[in-house]
From TrEMBL:
Source superkingdom: Bacteria
Name of one Pfam family that matches: FAD_binding_3
UniProt-recorded Gene Ontology molecular function terms: FAD binding
Protein name listed in UniProt: NAD(P)/FAD-dependent oxidoreductase
InterPro entries: FAD-bd, FAD/NAD-bd_sf, Geranylgeranyl_reductase
Domain FAD-binding: 6-302
UniProt-listed PANTHER family: CONDITIONED MEDIUM FACTOR RECEPTOR 1 (PTHR42685:SF22), GERANYLGERANYL DIPHOSPHATE REDUCTASE (PTHR42685)
Length: 374
């Protein structure tokens, strides 16, 4: 029986769109399912590490014309307001997900990728074929890339262990208008129970995105009250909020954010981006990892397709090996950093240590980032 080489991508965020574009450039026919309409805002810090810019160029994706902001400085403050300023070794750009995802989507459409704006409800693997169901369609494919983000009903269908556990995290984001915010700086301000990132986007708006534990949020429940009672205890955040005006009618919120380990392959689906693993957001590296994982998966798929008699087992092994080589160590560094920063005593000690040894911080940042992906 002839091998089914049809490729389906589930999820049209950064990982899914990048993989679909890569495979289309290599001459493959790809169908991508995305449940939301483009463009839309997403909860994200919107700082994109420059490491993936060469790869985006390879994909034919030009971000320059959207006017992203160049960012090469980090301003970090502890809950008590102590400051650290450093240069970011590689730097990044500030661009909203509203714009970034739409640019990739338009590129995908221009390459003839079939984008179905449908939610995948079920997926089953049987005798070498993936059977994909939405409310409107049924599709069969030989290869499926799972790029549906942090958490979805599909994870429950696939019996992924992380979905069974309640997690302790939620995240909130909005864009603000404020005059005088430094364009070249991403700020990370610790508060009791979380941290808040600030950086400018291509529109000149400041993206404000914070991650907080439920235990710190549950007494206040309302984001506005939480902002008043908890975030503003950090004097840098108090200063920002006293001068800034929200551009959103309502903050965007996501809950049940899990940093647990996930399997990279589930029922022969290659998992990409956040569906494979979520690095702690304070590393500012999840978007770059999502895009980079698309490259690793696409290369493994292409090798499988062009190798006569190429086996699925080899495809899966190659993807897992490349993913671990590229990301495992930075995910572990991210876990360690998050533990330190969320412990107020440790955060103060590490702040003092970094002030004594200023070369330490760029070194730690490098450990959570990769080198440019050519
Ligand atoms: C608070 C916070 C701040 C962050 N800040 C930063 C930062 O500053 N810099 C950085 O690099 N990273 C940051 N990240 C991480 C970054 O947002 C993610 O790593 C990145 O969005 C992952 O991209 P993705 O393509 O894997 O997933 P997503 O961008 O989430 O895309 C998944 C897509 O799949 C679609 N989908 C889901 N289920 C289905 C389904 N069943 N059928 C069809 N479609 C489906 C969704 O609608 C979505 O469009 C942050 C994360 C958090 C939580």
């Amino acid at each position: 029986m002839a091998r089914n080489n049809k490729i389906v991508v589930i999820g049209g965020g950064l990982a899914g769109l990048s993989a679909a574009i890569h495979l289309a450039i290599c001459g493959q026919q790809v169908t991508l399912f995305e449940k939301e309409m483009y463009p839309h805002h997403k909860v994200c810090g919107e700082y994109l590490s420059k490491e993936v810019l060469p790869y985006l160029k390879f994909l034919g994706v030009d971000l320059g014309s959207s006017g992203p902001v160049e960012i090469d400085k980090l301003f970090y403050s502890t809950p008590s307001g102590k400051e650290i300023h450093t240069r970011l070794p590689l730097g990044g750009i500030g661009i909203s997900r509203y714009t970034l995802d739409e640019i990739l989507y338009k590129k995908a459409v221009s390459l003839g990728i079939e984008v179905k704006q449908e939610e995948v409800k079920e997926i089953e693997f049987d005798e070498g074929i993936h059977k994909i169901k939405t409310s409107h369609s049924y599709t069969e494919a030989g290869i499926v890339l799972g790029a549906y983000g942090k958490r979805d009903a599909l994870d429950r269908k696939l019996h992924r262990p992380f979905i069974q556990k309640k997690t302790g995290w939620l995240a909130i984001k909005a864009h603000y208008q404020m005059n005088g915010y430094p364009r070249d700086t991403v700020s990370l301000h610790n508060f009791k129970g979380g941290y808040c990132g600030l950086s400018m986007t291509e529109t000149g708006a400041i993206n404000v995105c914070y991650l907080a534990t439920y235990s710190s949020f549950k007494d206040h429940k309302d984001p506005e009250v939480f902002k008043e009672k908890v975030l503003r205890k950090n004097r840098h955040l108090a200063q920002f909020f006293s001068k800034a005006t929200s551009l959103f009618e309502k903050d965007l919120t996501i809950a049940q954010i899990s940093f647990d380990r996930k399997a990279l392959i589930e029922d022969h689906i290659l998992m990409l981006g956040d569906s494979a693993a979520l690095i702690h957001p304070l590393c500012g590296n999840g978007m770059a990892m999502a895009i980079h994982s698309a490259k690793l998966a696409s290369e493994a798929v292409m090798e499988y397709l062009v190798t006569p008699g190429g086996s699925r087992e080899n495809l899966e092994h190659r993807y897992e090996a490349e993913w671990n080589r590229s990301f495992k160590s930075r995910i572990n560094t991210g876990r360690m950093l998050q533990k330190v920063l969320l412990n107020p005593a440790l955060a103060e000690i590490s702040q003092n240590t970094v002030q004594l040894f200023p070369g330490l911080l760029p070194h730690i940042i490098k450990r959570t980032h990769g080198i440019p992906v050519e």
